[in-house]
Fold this sequence. Notes:
This protein has 10 helices and 15 strands. With 301 residues, it is α/β, with parallel strands linked by helices.
Amino acid sequence: MRIYGFDRYGDAQVQQYFELPVPTPGPEQVVIELVAAGLNPADIKVRNGQRQGKVAVSFPMAIGREAAGRVVSAPQGPGLEPGELVLGGTASGFGALSEQVVLDPAQTVPVPQGVTAEQAACIPVAIGTALDALDELAPEAGQTLLVLGAGGGVGSHLVQLARLRGVRVVGVAGTAKHEVLTGLGVEVVASGEGWVQRVRGLGPVDCLVDAVGGQTLREGAALLADPSRLRSTADVALAREVGGSGVTRRRDASLFADLAALVAGERLQVVTGATFDFDQAAEAVATVESGHTLGKVVVSR
C-alpha cells in the first residue's frame, strides 16, 4: 500500500510516498480503507520533530492523525463491522495519509447518516480539540470568549460550539475569513496592527482560546482579568508563561459521537477550506503549513 509521510524528522523535503506492507493490526486496533483524512498544524510539528516524546513515531510514518473510512478489520465483538464507515484517531505510531489506516478503537465510532467521510475526518483532532478547550474554560451563557485565529480548523468550530451554549464570541481573523465567521454568529475583528484596541472597544473578555501563538498570544493574554482562563493550541509554553495552559485532549469515542451527531443534526457546520486528492498530498500539507487556510484541509481518495 501507499502512504504519504516521512522517514526522518525535518521540513517538507523529508516528505514522500512510500510503499509499505498492508498493516497487521494489534488485537485492539481497527484497520480502515481510507476515504478521507484531516490535516492540522500539529501534523507539521510532528514531522518537524517538535512533538518528540509526546507523539509516537515509527518511521516511515504517514502524516496526519484523524481519518474516516470503511472497516477492514476490527476487534471481535459488537460495534465496528467490516465495511462500516467510521471515523477515528490513529493508533500510536501510525498516521492517516495511508491507503489503509490503523485506528485506536477507543477513538473510533460509526459515522452517522447524513455526515460525509470528509466531514467525519475533521472531528477527532480539530473539532475534538475545540470541544476540549471550551469545556475546560466553561464560559457561561452571556460571557465573552475571545478566539485568536478564529478562522482556522480549531477556531471555526470552537466558535460554533460556544454559540450553541449562548456564549458571546469575538473572533480575530484575516479579512478573507470574515464573511464565513460572521455567518457563524461571530463578532469579527480584523487581525494585524491595532487588533487589541479593536477588541477592547467591544468590551471585557472573560476567557480566551489562542490558535496563533507568539506575540499575538502575549497581547491577547493582557486582555484577561484572570489569565488562568486562557488556553492555547499553538504555543503551550508561552501560554503557561502568561498564566494559562494548553488544552488537555480527551480522545474519547463517546465525545466524537456527540460531535458527529451535532453535524448530522446540522447544528455544527464542518468548515472545509480546501480538499485534495490523495495524489495531491504534498500540496495539502503545504496548504496547512502556510497557516492561512479557512477551516480544515482534507485529503480524500
